[in-house]
Inverse folding.
């Protein structure tokens, strides 16, 4: 067995240190943030690793990582306890001594004094610095970070606490990397989002766009009820954004009206902005989604500007009493039917005095299905004061959580199209 | 720079292959499952890594991993496309040829035929096997896996698709590892769950339990509105469960009545079981939680057995109209008040004809706070047909999502104690 060991220029690797990252519950999420920031500087991440805080593990992993990429970002293991040995390990690997820094020591003591306690003896070691390293100030915590360059490799040491790590990255590491010339043409990512459309249908529609940009990396990601189109361009922000804007516009043409937002946009946020912009108000009647649709709408700060309320009518008696579904409809068509959904939407709108009523009823499973109405049968209806009436019948696959999420995304997607005046597949 | 390179016996490392795992959105969640299964076999995970599907990366990483632990589990990169080279890389590292397996080829062709399509030429390479390797059948997908042992190291190759990976692990890999004697005294984990108690308070109460078991690894994890106590014991399942049961019983004593469940239990599931067991029915009135509480209750399959519905009364008019909060109360005390919460709970119970009514009202922020009622002020009330009336006032810190989650957990925790007849801190 032999391994080629040529670090690739302009690349980085990430090492997360902490035994808790080797258990069954926690993942290293810091690396997602670091990857985005590194890519924007033109530095691609070629590998990531997690190790515990054992001394031998650290001494082995740091050279391994530097054999694969010339820049190594290490997070975690900078605290005051015996388990925190990252700094010592990097010093050993680079054969540098640790030196007590009196200014840092006084700063630490002052930090504790402000909180009204004497600094424990163990914290003193946080004032030790790697000789010849750039010390990275950590205004949000007690452990400083380090940037060490030697033998063609650079190691950046940051604390594992996300807020401390992120603040130090932006305020100290990026300026040093840029000044040090470590950066190349930045990679800038963009994500466009489509609601409640099957991934395969989106893929068919956007294929011509992929074909028109053979050099652009495209990814299509499916989350329940949502499809994301991810792509990226390299260059200065201005250059890259020009390319990204052109691709985005091509995607909009290919998917006319189906893209609801980009990057951090959420469907509930976009719909909320539209409701506010159009001075409309919303009321809901929910059966199979059981409050989740209202929960999504009210996730948005300020949603009380346009959201009046919801009737979660799980029991049939509640469908009749709260939103006025007629006994005849329930008996003739059943609770899961187009007719019930329509009466629920109308009833919610009237009951809350809203301009738009939106209703869901269906069988989320796993029980309750019949041959005529299998699990996944869902009816969604929209009823507006302007006379618009829309109904959609879905036959969804998947488990209870997936069926409920798809239903809320489809309902919000219908509402978005109604507010924008975009014709929808639903029957009017 | 020099690295010690002694693989630790009885340990494993995990390598996830796929460029999508080096981006800004996806993490390797397969490793959490694999870690739990390996630990139960007595095999500790000492490192995890992610790399792209580049040929040089794979040729470098596989020996690196084997230098740290004698067992390496690789997931991903077994598909039919040019990007899928994991199998070729392992063959190269171990200096073994790939051989076309005619039986696997026929199986693949048959698989495609059943779906009514001819097998694409690219899929043929999925019938290539590493000479001398154990071929691991994959009944859920097209790519078989492999177990290769050579030079003191063992590599297990599995697909990256979680359902395929998990099925193959349980059905083929574990039996091979157990027969091969690779396993030691298993590590068995247990998690106990506490709702809506501050982490620091839980920590103070359970400290004596930690102290009584100096050799047991304890972790306390805080999720919004929930604290988890994790611990583990080594041995055969019988031996380990005996120790875990004793510790669990000590935790129950230390936290009298506060532990609602263990391992995969959810608060909404436990509360649902209690409602069904006690033949009780539930109705909700939600303001600040905006449907999220109903959403959690109805996440549970079969919740229609006990859940009648919710009035999500975001607007004040809805509080009056749907659950009968009096105009005088709203005017004198405001929508965020003990009085409003109590009337909402009573009104919800009566409106839906339930045995228990539960209500939330508060200021989730970021806007809407005043000096008297700052963001995070929340009132929760419970009203039962047996005459029980409970009210709790919270002052929560954190953002909107955190405040809403804490509120739903506190409300469900109150309901659980009511159903169990456990006295609660709330005023009656």
């Amino acid at each position: 067995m032999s391994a080629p060991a040529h670090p690739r220029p302009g690349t980085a690797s990430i090492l997360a240190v902490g035994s808790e990252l080797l258990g069954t519950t926690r993942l290293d999420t810091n690396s997602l943030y670091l990857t985005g920031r590194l890519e924007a500087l033109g530095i691609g991440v070629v590998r990531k690793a997690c190790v515990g805080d054992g001394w031998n593990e650290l001494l082995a992993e740091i050279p391994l990582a530097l054999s694969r990429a010339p820049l190594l970002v290490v997070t975690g293991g900078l605290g005051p306890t015996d388990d925190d040995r990252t700094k010592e390990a990097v010093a050993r690997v680079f054969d540098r001594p640790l030196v007590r820094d009196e200014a840092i020591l006084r700063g630490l003591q002052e930090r504790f004094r402000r909180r009204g306690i004497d600094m424990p003896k163990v914290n003193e070691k946080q004032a030790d610095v790697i000789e010849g390293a750039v010390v990275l100030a950590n205004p949000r915590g007690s452990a400083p970070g380090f940037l060490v360059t030697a033998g063609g490799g650079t190691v950046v040491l940051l604390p594992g606490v996300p807020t401390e790590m992120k603040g130090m990255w932006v305020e100290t590491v990026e300026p040093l990397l840029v000044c040090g010339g470590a950066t190349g043409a930045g990679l800038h990512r963009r994500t466009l989002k489509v609601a409640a459309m099957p991934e395969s249908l989106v893929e068919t529609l956007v294929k011509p766009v992929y074909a028109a940009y053979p050099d652009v990396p495209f990814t299509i990601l499916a989350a329940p009820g949502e499809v994301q189109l991810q792509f990226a361009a390299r260059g200065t922000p201005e250059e890259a954004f020009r390319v990204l804007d052109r691709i985005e516009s091509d995607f909009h043409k290919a998917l006319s009206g189906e893209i609801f937002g980009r990057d951090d946009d959420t469907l509930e946020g976009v719909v909320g902005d539209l409701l506010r912009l159009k001075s409309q108000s919303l009321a809901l009647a929910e059966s199979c989604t059981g409050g989740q649709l209202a929960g999504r709408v009210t996730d948005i700060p300020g949603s009380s500007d346009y959201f009046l309320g919801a009737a979660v009518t799980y029991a049939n008696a509640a469908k009749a009493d709260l939103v006025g579904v007629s006994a005849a409809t329930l008996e003739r068509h059943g609770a899961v039917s187009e007719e019930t959904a329509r009466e629920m939407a109308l009833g919610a709108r009237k009951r809350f005095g809203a301009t738009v009523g939106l209703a869901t009823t269906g069988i989320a499973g796993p029980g309750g299905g019949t041959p005529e109405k299998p699990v996944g049968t869902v009816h969604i209806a929209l009823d507006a004061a302007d006379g618009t009436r829309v109904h959609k019948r879905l036959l969804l696959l998947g488990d209870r959580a997936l069926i409920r999420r798809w239903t809320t995304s489809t309902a919000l997607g219908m509402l978005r199209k109604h507010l924008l005046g975009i014709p929808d597949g639903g029957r009017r």
About this structure: Chain A touches chain B through 89 residues (CB under 8 Å).
